[in-house]
Amino acid sequence: MSPPACDGIETPSTTTSCCCRCEEEDVVKPDGQNCLHCKIIDQPSSSSCFIRSDKELEKLWRILIASAKGFSIGAGLKGGLSIFSILARFKKTKLSPTQRKAGMVSNGEAIIKAVKETLRYGLFLGAFAGTFSSVDEFIAAVGGHRRTAGWRALLAGAVAGPTMLMTGPNTDHTSLAIYILMRAAVLASRCGIKSKRFGGFCKPLTWAHGDIFLMCLSSSQILSAYILKQDSLPHSYKSFLNTHGGKHAAILQGIKEIASGMPLTNLDGIEKHYKSMGVNIKLDPEMKVPCTIVHGNQSCQSHILSFLRQAYARALPVYLPVYLFPALIVHRQDLLKRPFTILGKGLFGTARSSLFLSVYCSSAWMWTCILFRAFKTCNIPMVAMGTFPPGLALAIEKKSRRIEISLYCFARAIESFFTCMIDAGILPKSKKLNRADVLIFSLSTAIIMHCYAQEREVFRSKYLNVLDWVFGVPPPTSETPRGKQS
User: Fold this and answer.
1) By the 8 A CB rule, do 155 and 139 touch?
2) Where in the numbering of this chain does the Transmembrane protein 135 N-terminal domain appear (predicted)?
3) Rounded to an integer, what distance in angstroms lies between the CA atom of residue 391 and that of residue 364?
4) Which has the closest alpha carbon to 348: 313, 321, 323?
5) CA–CA distance from 229 to each of 102, 143, 249, 380 (Å)?
6) At residue 149, does pLDDT exceed 90?
7) Do the Cβ atoms of 81 and 240 come closer than 8 Å?
8) What is the mean pLDDT of residues 411-439?
9) 326, β-bridge pairs
10) How many CB atoms lie within 10 A of CB 180?
11) Which of 42, 46, 73, 416 could form a disulfide with 232 if both were Cys (CB 3.0 to 4.6 A apart)?
12) 120 half-sphere exposure, CB direction, 13 A CA radius
């Protein structure tokens, strides 16, 4: 005989009903001390406390893990680039007293600076990942995971953006912020292409060769600025161009003076530079075509071939860490299973990207020489025209990397263009907004993290793998971040 469903007890209202629904019957029955269902409910649940505690620990663990992984990525990438930069410095001779007076740092000082920058970038990405995860968990706990799913990542990404200041309060990152904004715009456009409402407007963005055209536009601004106005370029990027452009500052000054219609003031410096290389030349102060300034006694054809070989040797150390460190992070598991395949792809990618950079730099001098000789003159429009076709070298790269490189260069081209406009007095300089880079970066990360949580299919697999590794796979809106009911 089954136990009675209820053995009524008196309530303050003198009724014997507590409106309990027993499991066996879906009807209202009187309740009592012997109701098995009510006994289960009224018992203090120690297991629920453990579950609640486990959830809190799981959230805290997610934040700590995200912070640690973010730090490892930031420190690994920045540290890897710094190592190759320092190794390149060791190949050079020690600084002379004249160079030290000019402000050049020693190798020891460069190492200390590299360590500091590595830690700063590690802290930056670690703080970004930790802040995003913390805000994400806090909003989900307060507002509910399902109710806040549509906007939670957007707000968390925006709040995490100011962690960029950890790289240094006085360190401007306009180029990085604009690049991240370009990445966010690409993701937003992919979302727009999927949309029925905005698909028609975003259709032109699906042009197959749009990345190469964008690279050509960027190249025209960047290389023109490299020759005519280097102050409009970020310091690190200017150093990069001075290295891979392969020309002495005196040569660039001579080209700038001819293109700007100014008298040549440093012909002696150019002649001394070539003499130090074993080439004796005598430059004409009335020259209209600067080919002799660019490559001395060499013909245009032989100069391009010799420059290409030298440029390729300079490009290899640049791309080796670009392919090596992501392979260690993204393909860390496959690296143990099939190391030769992964390393082979990395070496092939290094060789191809190095070829792209060397052809890009070589063709820049080739096209300018062709135009200067064809029109027998050198001016600013001619420089801009001659630096447009080198962007075609991007076709050497594989398709997935073309958009990355073109966006990277386009971000720097935009910054350089507006700097030139401000310096020329065409655009006013804003004095109220000192850290526009932080604002732009926060807006960009808000868009990116929202797309990551809501529109995962718009990401490339390699970026999605990295984000999943750091933050964990975002669950469906019907589940909590740990796949349990909220």
Assistant:
1) yes
2) 298-419
3) 9
4) 323
5) 21, 52, 12, 11
6) no
7) no
8) 83
9) none
10) 24
11) 416
12) 15
- Mean pLDDT of the region 413-423: 90
Whole-number Å distance between alpha carbons of 330 and 357? 24
Residue 71 CA to residue 329 CA, distance in Å, equals: 13
Q: For residue 141, what pLDDT is reported? A: 87
Phi, psi of 155 (to 5 degrees): -70, -40
pLDDT at 60 over 60: yes
Closest CA to 153 of 484, 466, 471: 471
Token pair in block for residue 11: 């309530």
Sort 278 into a burial class: Cβ within 10 Å, 0-12 / 13-18 / 19+.
exposed
CA separation, residue 480 to residues 33, 69, 119, 143 (Å): 36, 22, 34, 12
Tokens of 414: 């935009």
State the DSSP string of 166-203: GG-TT---HHHHHHHHHHHHHHHHHHHHH-TTTHHHHG
Strands 20-21 and 28-29 come out as antiparallel
Q: Considering the chain, what is the average pLDDT of its residues?
A: 81
Instruction: Give the separation between CA 209 and CA 408, rounded to whole angstroms.
Output: 16
DSSP label at residue 29: E
**Phi, psi for 405 (deg, rounded to 5):** -70, -40
Cβ atoms 192, 198 nearer than 8 A: yes
Give strand ranges (E) for 355-425. none
What is the 3-state composition of the chain as percent helix, strand, coil, each rounded to the nearest 5? Answer: 70, 0, 30
Q: Nearest CA to 67 among 154, 139, 135?
A: 135
The answer to whether 120 touches 112, Cβ cutoff 8 Å, is: no
Q: Which residue is associated with the tokens 């310096």?
A: 423
DSSP state, 426?
Answer: S
Which stretches of 91-106 are DSSP H helices? 97-101
Strands (E), 319-364: none
Cβ–Cβ < 8 Å for 212, 392: yes
Contact assessment for residue 430 and residue 436, using Cβ atoms and an 8 Å cutoff: yes
pLDDT of residue 345: 86
Task: Report yes or no: 130 and 66 within 8 Å, Cβ to Cβ.
Answer: yes
Q: What is the Cα–Cα distance from 411 to 414, expressed in whole angstroms? A: 5
Residues 6+ apart with CB under 8 A from 419: 231, 232
Q: Give mean pLDDT, residues 148-177.
A: 88
Cβ proximity of 241 and 233 under 8 Å = yes
Question: Six-digit token pair at 199?
Answer: 């698909």
Instruction: Name which of 446, 365, 462, 355 is nearest 404 in CA terms.
Output: 462
* Single-letter amino acid, residue 201: F
d(Cα 73, Cα 126) in Å, to the nearest integer? 8
